[in-house]
């Protein structure tokens, strides 16, 4: 089994943190985004037709893409510790908060970055006004996260889950567009210090 | 238990089709988007702080939002028939194809519609250039779906799943921006005729 990985990008980090929480070791294969290795003919033909990282290669030669699909695979083959929730209600809460963290924070930051950064000029279709709208909304999204964390330890409730992984990585990624956690959002700051101090956060 | 619903919108339909496939009856409460009932003080204060539909109200008074979180809840309380996959590998495939159908089709159509339609003028922050880019990409997204369906019956493999529900609803919703399934995409047309003929599609 191998995981096609990219050290600097937020989505592969979601999988690495998830695996660290489960104490699962998987061989990592570094894909160099600056060299466009994820768009190379061989990668497109044999590993991921959409040119995405991360992609998991199973021992039977088949591939799973999409960070949350890869995490879901490992949750099924090694349920302990559960990171997608313990019972029906908690599983629904984890799914709900994972999606909100993804839509409101991680994808918001990604849109702000990709549609305005020179790095993506000529590589992607940029709509600067879309990037600027997403950038302008980031403070209210941090405030939303702060309110969500006011009365509980973790995003989906009492237990650390994949929703915390996505939210932490979205918040950390926001540094690329100049947003940082601060005391302006005390619940967010308390939660971020907690999740960032877990050994898995360094994965 | 009650489901706050909106007949015309695509996301609530995902939950209704899912429930029909499981033969689960839930009381529906119609929320009128034209009257802005989903943004009314009472709805925001007591049902969904983000003003979203669908929202499921459990008998203990708690709420679950996000279509896929609601579906996940029902998958857990009534696993049969499984709509999120049977084993680890199929569960990962369903998650992967669900997300791709959502990102590439359903959210693409929604962006094309919401950022250009007069209906949302003044109600949402519109970026017409973003809507137009998404609109321009729809033919390649239908072609992508067509290619994905070339060698298999359903989107995630041999079994009908929640990925088919999301893809069907994304394709159906594309009518609002002038896109229709046609023989230009024969695999897509064959698959669409199949999923649209299931009794659940009318839910």
Descriptive labels:
homodimer; 203 residues; alpha+beta; Glutaredoxin; Glutathione S-transferase Yfyf (Class Pi), Chain A, domain 2; 2 domains; four-stranded mixed sheet; 4 strands; globular
Structure description:
- 2 copies of one chain form a homodimer.
- The first copy, chain A, is an alpha+beta fold and 203 residues long.
- The first copy, chain A, is built from 7 helices and 4 strands.
- Helix content of chain A is 50%, strand content 7%.
- The first copy, chain A, has a 4-stranded mixed sheet, with helices on one face.
- In chain A, strand 3 (55-57) and strand 4 form a beta hairpin.
- In chain A, helix 4 (88-114) packs parallel to helix 6 (162-173) and helix 5 (128-148) packs across helix 7 (186-196).
- Chain A is globular, with a radius of gyration of 17 Å.
- Chain A starts with a strand and ends in a 7-residue tail after the last helix.
- The model of chain A has no long low-confidence stretch (mean pLDDT 95).
